Each structure stands twice: as structure tokens, then as C-alpha cells.
């Protein structure tokens, strides 16, 4: 075997295999694993080093043992090594079992009588690899015929429908858990037109009764000014819609009826109304304070400082 695959092929192939396995099994996001986790890079380096070292050692051992052999043994070894794989006994045995070809010297045994202007014909047996493959197709056809034509197991249309059902179930399962993917910590302001349009639809169905279609406010406070009772910015607004306002004020927790990813959209839509100054807007509530985005930064930096 050693002779069959030379060292300059063997080492890179083994290394590439291990490298590939690492990248495949280690989840490192978009970056390759050996860049994201320097330990992996180090491991691969050591591994490569070891591979080369093993080759060098094995080679040295071979050299030493070779010198210890008698002349007779050296000759035998050289002869054995000179035989290539296709000349080896194992390979020849296998080929003869699979093909059952007759050697040229035995051709007389299978020669047929007729002779057309010197063109003669050999009566070789069918090669076993072909025969067994053929038997396999017969068995397959038999089972197929009985299962699908006689017993009437599913047809292509049913197969398609079951696959669609399975796929739909998977999508439903995904959507059931999908709402958990959005939370106060993760929420970001959406600015794309389609999300805002969806947010607007949700707002129109659920919120206009108290906040007015233009967000100017009625029972609920004005949502278009810079002043907020419960805090401005996407995180606070998202949280207010999720959890509701202060007790007894009338703003319910919408998480019971709208899923979080949709609340993100409606919150983004609400924030898109900032500064629109609708006509007859409700005056700023006395308890509302002006919201400055910088306020978040202050909070964050204290958090970092506290750590
Ligand atoms: C039944 C009336 C009512 C409905 C419907 C309603 N709200 Fe409110 N909303 C209020 C009230 C009242 C407040 C003030 C809560 C408080 O003072 O704690 C409020 C507060 C808010 C606030 C916080 C305002 C601030 O200054 O901090 C936001 C944001 C908000 N609502 C968004 C919505 C959205 C989005 C919807 C629709 C999904 C909605 N509201 C539906 C009555 C309502």
C-alpha cells in the first residue's frame, strides 16, 4: 500500500480530509472555523507537523530494517514491492471471479466450430458482474410490478401530495416557534417599505381606535411627538406594545394577539410617524418626557463601566 500512494499524495489527502471534517462539523457561521477559532488553526498546524514527522520516522525505520535484512531477503522484498496493485494476486483473483475470462492459452477450449473466412468465434460465458446486475434488475422489476401495479401502492400524484404535506407541516412547525425569535433585546428598527406597510396594516386594524389613524392620539397618547410616557426608541416602544402600558390606562399587552415579529413591524411603523405633526394632535401628556436616542448610549456605557 505504501508504494501505491506516494507520500506527496498521502499527506495532503489525509490533511485535506481532516481539514474538511473540521469545517463540516464545527459550526463557525460565515467564517471558516480555523479563522474564527485560533485553536483549530493551531490544532491543524500541529496535525500537519505530526503527519510529516510520522512519515519521516516511518521512512527512517524502513531504511534501518532494510539494512538489517540478508541479501536473500532484500531481493524478495524488492520483488514484492515491484509488483503493482494490478499485478497483485488479490486483484487478479478478483478480476477473474468477476469476469470468468479464459486466458489466451485456453482459448481453444471455448472456440466454436464455424469459421467464416478465417473469422472465428469464442463461446465465452457471460461475465458474472453483468449476470448478477441483470438478475438484480429482474428482482427489482418484480417487486415494483407487484407493489405498484398489483397492490396499487401510492402513485406519483400521491407521492407529491405527501411530500407537500410534510413540507407544510415543517413550515407550520417553524412558524409556531418563530415568534420567540424576536425579543426586546434583539429588536431593531425596521425601515424597509414592506415591513412598514405590514406594520401599517396591523396599526390600522388594532390601534387606530385609541391612537388615531395618523397617530395623533385620542384615548391613547400622541405617538408622533418626541415625548414618551413609557420611553421612546425601538426597544421601549416594542416593549410597551408587547407588555402594555401602566395598569388601568387602557393600553393592553398585545403579545397575546400579535406575534413579536409583527410587533416589531408595528413598532417600527409607529416610530416612522415621528415628527409628522398631524392636525389636532393630542397635546403632550404631562408625564411624558422628551426622548433622546443618546439616552440609550448613556445607559449602555454605564453598564459597560459597571462590568
Ligand atoms: C384601548 C385603547 C388603545 C389601543 C387599542 C391601543 N393603545 Fe396604545 N396606548 C393607549 C393608552 C391609554 C396608552 C397610555 C398608556 C400609559 O399611560 O401607560 C397607550 C400607550 C401606547 C404607547 C406608549 C406611548 C408613550 O408615550 O410611551 C405606544 C407606543 C402605543 N400605545 C402603541 C400602540 C399600538 C402599536 C397599538 C396597536 C397594536 C395600540 N397602542 C393600541 C391606548 C390604546
From TrEMBL:
It holds the Pfam family FixP_N. SUPFAM superfamilies: Cytochrome c. InterPro entries: CcoP_N, CcoP_N_sf, Cyt_c-like_dom, Cyt_c-like_dom_sf, Cytochrome_c_Oxidase_Subunit. Keywords: Heme, Iron, Membrane, Metal-binding, Transmembrane, Transmembrane helix. Coiled coil: none annotated. The chain crosses the membrane at residues 6-25, 37-58, 129-148. Signal peptide: none annotated. The keyword Metal-binding applies. Residues 194-274 form the Cytochrome c domain. This is Cbb3-type cytochrome c oxidase N-terminal domain-containing protein. It comes from Flavobacterium aureirubrum.
Amino acid at each position: 500500500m505504501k508504494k501505491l500512494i506516494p507520500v506527496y499524495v498521502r499527506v495532503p489527502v489525509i490533511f485535506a480530509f481532516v481539514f474538511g471534517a473540521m469545517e463540516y462539523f464545527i459550526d463557525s457561521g460565515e467564517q471558516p472555523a480555523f479563522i474564527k477559532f485560533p485553536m483549530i488553526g493551531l490544532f491543524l498546524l500541529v496535525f500537519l507537523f505530526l503527519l510529516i514527522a510520522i512519515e519521516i520516522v516511518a521512512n527512517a525505520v524502513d531504511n534501518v530494517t532494510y539494512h538489517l535484512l540478508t541479501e536473500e531477503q532484500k531481493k524478495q522484498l524488492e520483488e514484492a514491492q515491484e509488483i503493482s496493485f494490478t499485478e497483485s494476486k488479490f486483484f487478479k483473483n478478483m478480476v477473474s471471479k468477476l469476469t470468468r475470462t479464459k486466458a489466451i492459452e485456453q482459448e481453444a477450449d471455448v472456440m466454436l466450430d464455424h469459421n467464416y473466412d478465417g473469422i472465428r468465434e469464442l463461446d465465452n460465458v457471460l461475465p458474472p458482474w453483468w449476470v448478477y446486475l441483470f438478475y438484480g434488475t429482474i428482482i427489482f422489476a418484480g417487486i415494483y410490478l407487484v407493489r405498484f401495479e398489483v397492490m396499487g401502492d401510492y402513485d406519483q400524484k400521491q407521492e407529491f401530495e405527501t411530500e407537500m404535506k410534510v413540507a407544510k407541516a415543517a413550515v407550520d412547525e417553524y412558524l409556531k416557534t418563530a415568534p420567540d425569535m424576536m425579543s426586546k433585546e434583539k429588536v431593531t428598527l425596521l425601515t424597509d417599505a414592506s415591513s412598514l406597510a405590514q406594520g401599517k396594516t396591523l396599526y390600522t386594524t388594532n390601534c387606530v381606535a385609541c391612537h388615531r389613524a395618523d397617530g395623533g392620539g385620542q384615548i391613547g397618547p400622541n405617538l408622533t411627538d418626541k415625548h414618551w410616557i413609557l420611553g421612546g426608541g425601538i426597544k421601549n416602544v416594542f416593549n410597551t406594545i408587547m407588555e402594555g402600558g401602566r395598569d388601568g390606562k387602557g393600553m393592553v399587552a398585545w403579545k397575546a394577539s400579535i406575534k413579536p415579529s409583527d410587533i416589531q413591524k408595528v413598532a417600527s411603523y409607529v416610530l416612522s410617524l415621528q415628527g409628522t405633526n398631524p392636525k389636532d394632535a393630542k397635546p403632550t401628556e404631562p408625564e411624558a418626557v422628551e426622548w433622546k436616542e443618546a439616552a440609550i448610549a448613556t445607559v449602555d456605557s454605564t453598564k459597560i463601566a459597571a462590568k
